[in-house]
Specification:
41% strand, 8 strands, eight-stranded antiparallel beta sheet, Nuclear Transport Factor 2, Chain: A, alpha+beta, single chain
């Protein structure tokens, strides 16, 4: 009887794993769109969490991350950038915001469809109070999102 239970458990685990792998595979459309958009990308690594596919890669010596929806349509690309190299209007926008007294621990440029560029700054007041601040190209604070 114990053998039957173990066999059933193993078969169930194999079925669940196989089904999970099929659900989380990256669509060929996303891969094709990525290859067209980022010719010459190296060190390409894909991951998928069912609702979106993420790809980490290098292009022209810079590490980047692109996101595609589950239908393979490009949603955004981001790359890390030093705070000091951000446009002055973005740094000025931060200085004029209510978050001016916070430390910026991370900054990224985010490229969105329609040639839209945003800047995401991770601001920290202390170990608990952390937010992502999103600025547009004119230095206007667009939104804030609590983060861990």
């Amino acid at each position: 009887m114990k053998f039957i239970r173990v066999t059933v458990a193993v078969l169930f685990a194999m079925t669940v794993q196989g089904g999970f792998a099929q659900i989380t595979s990256v669509s060929q459309i996303a891969k094709d769109n990525f290859e067209k958009q980022y010719r010459g990308a190296t060190n390409v690594t894909w991951s998928n969490d069912v609702i979106r596919a993420n790809v980490n890669f290098e292009l022209n010596g810079e590490e980047m991350n692109a996101e595609y929806n589950n239908k393979g349509i490009w949603k955004s690309t981001s790359k890390a950038v030093a705070f000091d190299s951000l446009p002055e209007v973005v740094k000025d926008g931060l200085a004029k915001s209510k978050y001016a007294d916070r430390t910026v621990s991370d900054s990224k440029i985010i490229y969105l469809p329609g040639s839209v560029i945003q800047y995401r700054l991770k601001s920290e007041k202390n170990d608990v109070e952390k937010k992502y601040l999103y600025f547009n190209e004119k230095g206007k604070l667009l939104r804030e999102v609590i983060t861990l």
